[in-house]
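Morning. Coffee machine broken again, so started the prediction first thing and wrote up yesterday's gels while waiting. Chain of 112 residues, entered below exactly as on the submission form.
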Amino acid sequence: MPRPDLRTVATFGLWLVLSVPMAVQSPVTAGPSTLSEVDKFIEEMVEKHGFDRRELKDILGHARVRSGVIRAMTRSAEAVLWDEYRSRFVDASRVQGGVKFWNVHAQALVFA
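Came back before lunch.
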């Protein structure tokens, strides 16, 4: 099976690595552990999947923390009833976009 697209894996990995430590700490900043978490992710991708360390560091080095996104990720959505949530976010264009994304990135999603 071919290796998944590097940018897709790096983007997913960065989101995963940064979202947990940042959600636990503060909605806008990450502590010193974040860098080591990114380094651990890079090391895992190099060792387990044969990715190029320099290329991953370059891609992840361009990532920027967007405080609005972090706040939205850490805000509880449970206070919103499903009908209200669904009407805001689930519509035909989003479903079609999701299907398109799934089809384009099917191989990478197998590894996710």
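The CA atoms of residues 42 and 70 lie 22 Å apart. Going to sketch it on the whiteboard this afternoon.
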